[in-house]
Amino acid sequence: MTRTDPPEVPGVLTAADVAATARSIAAVQESSGAVPWFPGGHTDPWDHVESAMALTAAGLCDEAGAAYDWCRRTQRADGSWPAKVVGGRVEDPTVDTNFCAYVAVGVWHHLACTGDDEFARRMWPVVRAAVDLVLDAQTERGEVAWARGRDGAWAGEALLSGCASIHQSLRCALALADHVGLPQPDWEVALGRLGHALRSHPEAFADKSRYSMDWYYPVLGGAVRGRAGLDRLRGRWRDFVVDGLGARCVDDRPWVTGAETCELVLALDTLGEVGAARDLLAAVQHLRDPDGSYWTGDVFTDGKRWPEERTTWTGAAVVLAADALSRTTPASAIFRGEELPVGLAPVGAGCGCDTYVTGVPG
């Protein structure tokens, strides 16, 4: 099993800093393996997997393994997980398609980091059931309904950021399927349809354009890259990025958030914009607590932390951003879609779209 030292970004985060952040996540992990938002808080499957990825990237593979075992044990018969669990008790049974699909990213990430083929084969049925469920919610046009309610019906609304994340999940699921020798051509078709919807059919998605996630997630999830990706980020850079502080969550609120900033770091890294990405990672360090955890956000007009929570998934986003920029683990390219140990092809490889002029703000 491959083990590495924690990532390090010189001048921004030392390996000891990243290790402390990973330990702050592990300290919140429950005996079941669940990783809630904070001690006593709720667990949702997307943020749980994001935290597991950070644990793996920092070398806490036993803790990450326990997190994935939680996914395997708690998956429902239809391939889903409830949207909200508190202390092992379901508080919201809603099936969120993005939440469910993300396990594929985590499993592929863990395999790439550790080379643990037994883990991959153990988790393959979990990923297959989750992806099959999610694609049941895909329309002919390509978008994926965001949720299934208590009545069993899929919601009529699709969310841009959620579908962009599902795009990344499908890419990882396909790579995993090839790795275990069970190709899924129907998934490939679904991925193509979803990517087309994300690039060409904005009317397919609910208007959430005031949220930064809808701005950068098509880039982060792999549907929009190259010049188109750079143009997308340049187009609203000044709406969302606050110099020296990070990225806003919402364009009309004076609130920068750690997770959105670090996801933007990851999106910039996929475009080769490592300078701008590093600057943003450095900027968001004002949210760091002495124990290595991170505050969710800061209202910069009055300097108040809001909400007053240090969330595991915020720390996880920092760890993954540090890994991407430092190229430390074998899975550091999981969002770039290149150079992984087994088979995830680059987005736009060979299309000539890597010839754009650098410098995001313009």
In short, what is this structure?
With 362 residues, the chain is mainly alpha-helical. The protein has helices at 15-26, 45-57, 61-74, 97-101, 103-114, 117-135, 160-179, 185-200, 212-220, 226-235, 237-240, 258-270, 274-283, 312-326, and strands at residues 84-86, 89-92, 95-96, 147-148, 241-242, 246-247, 255-257, 297-299, 304-305.
What keyword list fits this structure?
14 helices; 362 residues; disordered C terminus; globular
Structure in words:
The strands form 4 sheets. A 3-stranded antiparallel β-sheet has the order 7-8-9. It has a two-stranded antiparallel sheet with strand order 1-2. A hairpin with a 4-residue loop joins β8 (297-299) and β9 (304-305). 54% of the residues are buried. It is mainly alpha-helical. α2 (45-57) packs across α14 (312-326), α5 (103-114) runs antiparallel to α6 and α12 (258-270) runs antiparallel to α13 (274-283). The protein contains 14 helices and 9 strands. The chain is 48% helix and 6% strand.
